Amino acid sequence: MNKQQTIEESIAKIPHGAVIMVGGFGSPGTPFSLINELIRQGQKNLTLIKNDANEKAIGISKLIENGQVDKLITTHIGLNKGVVEMMNSGQMQVMFFPQGILAEKIRIAGAGSFGFLSDIGIDSEITDPSQLIEWQGKTLKIESALNADFALIHAQKADLYGNLIYRASAMNFNPLMAMAANHVIAETPNIVPVGDLVPESIHTPSAFVASVVALQSLTKEYEVMERRFEY
Amino acid sequence: MSIDRLVRRAAQEIKSGQIINLGIGLPTMLIEYLPNDMEVLIHSENGVLGAWKKAPRELAEPQLIDAGGNYITMRAGGSIFDSAVSFALIRRSKLDISIMGAFEVDEKGNLANWKIPGRFSPGIGGAMELAQKTKKVIVLCTHNDKSGQSKILKQCTLPLTAKHCVSRIITDKAVMDITDEGLLLKEMAQDITLQELIACTEANLIIPDTIGRF
Is B129 among the catalytic positions? Predict the structure, then answer.
């Protein structure tokens, strides 16, 4: 039941062409260390699912800049001009969903179901009429669940079984993705012995987690971004 | 143009007891104009209810931001949750007011603020769900774009975020309400005449007998 692995062996499980969910909304909750190891190992033709594309030269932006990503499924990449340009020039395919629809697609997959009915944007250009059905007197859109082969998760705290606790706004997509992917790799700067976490304070139960990576130190990417204070 | 006056005017829309979402840019700035003892809960799409003023550098926490990436503080009584819960809150219409920017907004309350085909398409983010599901949507934007074109139109031309969703428009030049009869002028900025306002507004304005000033 001890799921602790080195960062090298955990990321080595990921093959070329994998579909990978990556936690984080902006920087908080982004598993920077797992991403950096994926860059070092060099798996290619990846499909990434993440709320955003991080910002230039950090997080998944580095993976994209490094040419390892064929497709990004996301909601908004406005803070990353370089990735917008790669999308516009056709270097990488980008698929957008409304933010809450992306979250719900992942949540539903993590709950073991296959889709849900929504009224968001049904009369807008994001909806193709073939996606609509009549249901209980309403016109609704069928939204499919979204699974992945792998999820890369950042947790504030984890035990050796893989019980996870998130901190502040670093929670975001992490607990949803940790349930929706087939093989979940979680990194944490605070690994604790089994029994140390209060059971009802755990956000993601260990059953969903395949691998726990203890981070000995955190890179600068995890720190406050100084440019936010430059006006 | 006075951004300060525009944001200050928009801040007057916020009342004690409300749950609010503020869009990236101008709308988020109005938090800084709210009195510290006002009991409001500001929602941020990344999973925060109770977001408060920007954190100064020494108090910034790397793991606590708003949806625009600003380091924030939180007020007492706030909560943090995952992205599915964050949008459940939106889709279940728990927000009293959403204040959003606009590229275009029209007399019918149609809103376009997410895409300019061929020029700007970074993704829809949370805009569609906020516009469609918030009880009261207020648009906060400059009255004219950089080339002087009116953002307040008879009919939007860009892809819509949502139809018939806006109830009030606040610009640097005027406050206008979308009514069944059309776009009703409520207030004008101190430094503009009615003729000037009409000349820089493509939409038809209904002019009442008394017009407030801000």
Answer: no
